[in-house]
Amino acid sequence: MAVPVWSVDPRTGNQREQVAVEATASDVDAAVRAAHAVRHTLADRGVRIALLRAAAEELTADGERLRATADAETALGQPRLTGELGRTTGQLLAFADEVADGGYLDVIIDHADASLTPPRPDLRRYKVPLGVVAVYSASNFPLAFSVPGGDTASALAAGCPVVIKAHPDHPATSELAGAALRRAAVRVGLPEEIVTVLHGFEAGVELVKHPLVSAAGFTGSVRGGRALFDAAAARPQPIPFHGELGSLNPVVVTERAAGERAAEIGSGLAGSMTMGVGQFCTKPGLVLAPAGEPGDELVASLGKQLAEVSPGVLLDGRMREAFLAGVDERTRLDGVRAPVAAGEGEGRTVAAGFLTVDGERLLAEGEHDLLLEECFGPITVVVRYADTEQLTALLTRFPGNLTATLHLGTDEAEEADGAAARLLAELTPLAGRVLVNGWPTGVAVTPAQHHGGPYPASTSGSTSVGATAIERWLRPVSYQSAPHALLPAELRDDNPLGVPRRVNGTREV
Amino acid sequence: MAVPVWSVDPRTGNQREQVAVEATASDVDAAVRAAHAVRHTLADRGVRIALLRAAAEELTADGERLRATADAETALGQPRLTGELGRTTGQLLAFADEVADGGYLDVIIDHADASLTPPRPDLRRYKVPLGVVAVYSASNFPLAFSVPGGDTASALAAGCPVVIKAHPDHPATSELAGAALRRAAVRVGLPEEIVTVLHGFEAGVELVKHPLVSAAGFTGSVRGGRALFDAAAARPQPIPFHGELGSLNPVVVTERAAGERAAEIGSGLAGSMTMGVGQFCTKPGLVLAPAGEPGDELVASLGKQLAEVSPGVLLDGRMREAFLAGVDERTRLDGVRAPVAAGEGEGRTVAAGFLTVDGERLLAEGEHDLLLEECFGPITVVVRYADTEQLTALLTRFPGNLTATLHLGTDEAEEADGAAARLLAELTPLAGRVLVNGWPTGVAVTPAQHHGGPYPASTSGSTSVGATAIERWLRPVSYQSAPHALLPAELRDDNPLGVPRRVNGTREV
Question: Which Gene3D superfamilies match (chains A, B) (predicted)?
Answer without folding.
Answer: Aldehyde Dehydrogenase, Chain A, domain 1, Aldehyde Dehydrogenase, Chain A, domain 2
